[in-house]
C-alpha cells in the first residue's frame, strides 16, 4: 500500500481501513502506528488501480475484492487465531459453569424446602398423636418408678412466678422439695394445697431440686378430676345438717357430754374457750381419736401453732391423723405459713367433695403471729393488737362450712382467756360471734378436778335442731331449764354422775325425760 496515500488520510479514515483489514487493536493506535500496520499488511489493491487522495475508508473497502479480503483474513498470524479460540472456549466454559451452579443451587433450595415441609408434617402428626394419646399410654412410656425416677407424694405450693414446689415435712421448705413447671400447673389446674403423687427425676448438674415428670394422682383422684373441679369460693355454704357423733364408749364422758350439750356437725365452726390448765389439749386429743375411730373416711388435720415441743410429740403419738405444727421457738413467719398451707389443703379436699376436720390449737396464738408479721396499719386496739392482724385468722376460721354441692370443712379452734393478757381477751371478743358452736371450759371445775370441766350453761350450738332428734332436743331443754337455778359446779357433777351410770347417751336421754333434775 502506498505510504504517501496513507499519510494523506485522516486518522478516522485510516481506522476504517484497518477495520476492513481486521487489524487487532486498531482503535487504540495513533496515525503513525496505523500507517505502519497497514504497510506491513501488504498491498490490498489490484494493480492498475490507484486510490485517490480523496477516497474514504468506506470507499476503499468497497473497492477491495471479496476474495482478496478472505485471503488477507486467512493470512493473519496463527497466534491471533489461537488466542481467539482460547477466549471463545473460556467463555463457553464460564457460561457452562454458571449454568450448572445455578441449577445446583436451585436443586438444593428445592430439596431444603421439601425436607422442611416433611419435618413440619411429621411434627404436626406427632403433636396430634400426643393429644390423642391416652393417659395409660403415656404412663407406659414413663414405665413406672425407677431408681433414677422415684415416685413421690407431696403438697404443692405455688410461687408468684407461676411455678411450684412439692413440700414434704410439715409443709415447709427443704432440700428435698420437687420442682413443678408452670405448664403442668396450667394443664392439670393445680392449686396450692394439692397433694400430688407422680414420677420425678433427679436434679441435673447445677440444679438444686429434682423435677416432676408425670402426675399420677391429684388428691387421690385421677388428674382429670382436678381439671373439672369447682372453685372453693363458688361453692354454696349451708348450716351443718350432718352430725358428727363423738360417743365411742361408755367411759368417754367428755365426748358423750359434748354430744349432748354442744353437738358437732359437718361444717361446724366451733370455738373451745379455755383458760390455762383447763384440759383443752387433752380434750382436743380425745376429739381427734373419736373422729378417727368412728369416721375413718374424714380427712383430719391437727394444727398446733406456737405450741410446746413436748405437746407436739405427745399429739403425734396419740393420734394417727396428720399433725402439722410450729413450736414456740420458731419464727412467726413459720406459724403463719403452716396455717395458710393447712387451710389451702383443706379447701382443695373440699373441692373434691371430701369432708375435712381441722383441730386448731390455738387461734389466739395464730392471731398473735399475724400481729407480728403484717405491715402496721397505723391503728392499734387495746392490748397492742393491730386491727389488720385479725383478717387472716378470721379468714382461716371462716373457711369452716358445709357445702350444698358436697364436702365440708369443720374447724374446732381453741381460744385462750384469763391469761392476764389484754390482747388475748380482745382476740376472743373478736371471734366470739363468728362461730356457730361454743364450748366453754371452767377453771374452777378443773381446780376441783372435775373433768370434763365444761361449763354447761355457756356451751351450746346454733341451729342444734338440725343435728338432734326431737327426743334429744326435749331432754336438752329440760336440762337447761333445771340448770338455770343451780350452780355450775353442782349441775356438772350431777350430769357427769348420771352419764357414768348409763351405757350410752340414748339411755341418759330416756332417764332425763322420765325424771327431771331437782332444783
TrEMBL record:
Composition-biased stretches (Basic and acidic residues): 56-149
Claim: Cell division is one of the keywords in the record: no
The Rho RNA-BD domain, residue ranges: 149-222
Transmembrane parts of this sequence: none
Residues annotated to bind ATP: 265-270, 277-282, 308
UniProt keyword terms in alphabetical order: ATP-binding, Helicase, Hydrolase, Nucleotide-binding, RNA-binding, Transcription, Transcription regulation, Transcription termination
CDD domains linked: Rho_CSD (cd04459), rho_factor_C (cd01128)
Known EC number: 3.6.4.-
Region (Disordered): 40-149
A GO molecular-function descriptor: ATP-dependent activity, acting on RNA
Highest rank taxon of the organism: Bacteria
GO biological process terms on file: DNA-templated transcription termination
UniProt KW Transcription keyword: yes
Enzyme class, spelled out: hydrolase
Function: Facilitates transcription termination by a mechanism that involves Rho binding to the nascent RNA, activation of Rho's RNA-dependent ATPase activity, and release of the mRNA from the DNA template.
HAMAP family listed in its UniProt record: Rho (MF_01884)
Oligomeric form and interacting partners: Homohexamer. The homohexamer assembles into an open ring structure.
Family membership noted in the UniProt record: Belongs to the Rho family.
UniProt-listed PANTHER family: TRANSCRIPTION TERMINATION FACTOR RHO
Protein name: Transcription termination factor Rho
